[in-house]
Write a structure and sequence with these properties.
This protein has two helices and no strands. It is an all-alpha fold and about 60 residues long. The longest helix is centred in the last third of the chain and has 27 residues.
Length: about 60
């Protein structure tokens, strides 16, 4: 779970940098791949949260 937390934090940082860049005027073409990556990131956040809850219950 520590590795998952580290990796998801890095993915979130990269996503945030991309979104902030566009908000600051950097042009970014629409990308189905980026949209899919954002959707996957949200799903992974949910899965990590669920796994943490299951670990708490199991303990």
């Amino acid at each position: 779970m520590k590795k998952a937390d580290k990796e998801i934090a890095e993915a979130h940082r990269i996503q945030t940098d991309a979104i902030q860049g566009e908000a600051n005027g950097e042009k970014m073409e629409y990308s189905v791949l980026f949209t899919h990556a954002q959707d996957t990131l949200m799903t992974i956040y949910s899965e990590i949260n669920l796994a943490n809850q299951i670990i708490k219950i199991a303990k």
